[in-house]
Amino acid sequence: MKFTILFFFFLLLPFALADMRVGFYSSSCPRAEDIIRQVVQKHFNQDRSITGGLLRMHFHDCFVKGCDASILIDSTKGKPSEKTASPNLTVRGYKMIDDIKRSLEQACPSTVSCADIITLATRDAVAMAGGPRYNIATGRRDGLVSNPSDADKLPGPNSHVSDAMEIFTLNGMTLNEMVTLLGAHTVGFTHCNFFSDRLNDTNLDIDLAAKLKKTCAKNNASPVFLDQSTPFVFDNQFYKQILLKRGVLFIDSQLALDPSSRGLVSTFASNGDNFQQRFADAMIKMGNIGVLVNNDGEIRNNCRVFNRRS
């Protein structure tokens, strides 16, 4: 079954990419990428943690039904959406996407997809945080389905490397790309309920464990940075931290312990430039998972709502 899914994925991928290109909106909406960047910059100036929020949104969107902006759909009475799924309850960045879409609709109505907005906004936020700058093909269209049960396949914070790898493999991603993409945790944060069960774990640095116990005792909802060194800078400090047993989440600590991933963690910890280049490549590939192009899907007028149909 897994072979069939992967074969189908790689069979369709070249055809999908042929209908996407860098500068897709150069004629239909020449200022599209500038408008997106300006809105992202405004939000980033107000809250630098938005980079981690967008990276998580982009990942959660692409790994469910493909990069189709299905994660943005609001639930309606009797019809829950992906937003209500447990893994998505703490996803952030929806207001930024709304602001971008509003500006784009004023400039170029019904032209730029919400799926492309997520992809481009994430790319820009990563660069603003000191991460790699890269060109990315656009031309995605928005999906027509958003079901909470589809999000159950997302890897959780307590996953082992092998468990997470199964999900990445089903989406056409390699082990190296998985370790690379999880480096996004260098600008992410979590909450105590996602790691409180491992505060006495021997694979967690004693001093960090003591600090986290105090934080969680004061306020269980307090944000805790996944990179305790440079939480607002997109760098390779995350890998250095997890090698020192300072990985807050179980999956992060496992990256540094599992024989299949430890080597790449060490490589990235010692070579930040290598990590940044690999990250750009992995993001470009992830952004092409399950894309809708041409006449598939739609271009939503409001990213939270499917367009009306007769």
UniProtKB/TrEMBL annotation:
Which cofactors go with this protein? heme b; Ca(2+)
Q: Does the keyword Calcium apply?
A: yes
Q: Which InterPro entries match?
A: Haem_peroxidase, Haem_peroxidase_sf, Peroxidase_pln, Peroxidases_AS, Peroxidases_heam-ligand_BS, Secretory_peroxidase
Q: Where is the signal peptide?
A: 1-18
Annotated residues that bind Ca(2+) 2 are located at T186, D227, T230, D235
| Residues binding heme b, per UniProt | H185
Pfam families per the record?
peroxidase
Task: Say if the entry is tagged with keyword Disulfide bond.
Answer: yes
Q: Which Gene3D superfamilies match?
A: 1.10.520.10, Peroxidase, domain 2 (1.10.420.10)
**Which terms does the UniProt entry file under GO BP?**
hydrogen peroxide catabolic process; response to oxidative stress
What is the protein's known function? Removal of H(2)O(2), oxidation of toxic reductants, biosynthesis and degradation of lignin, suberization, auxin catabolism, response to environmental stresses such as wounding, pathogen attack and oxidative stress. These functions might be dependent on each isozyme/isoform in each plant tissue.
* Official protein name in the record: Peroxidase
**Top-down, what is the taxonomic lineage of the species of origin?**
Eukaryota, Viridiplantae, Streptophyta, Embryophyta, Tracheophyta
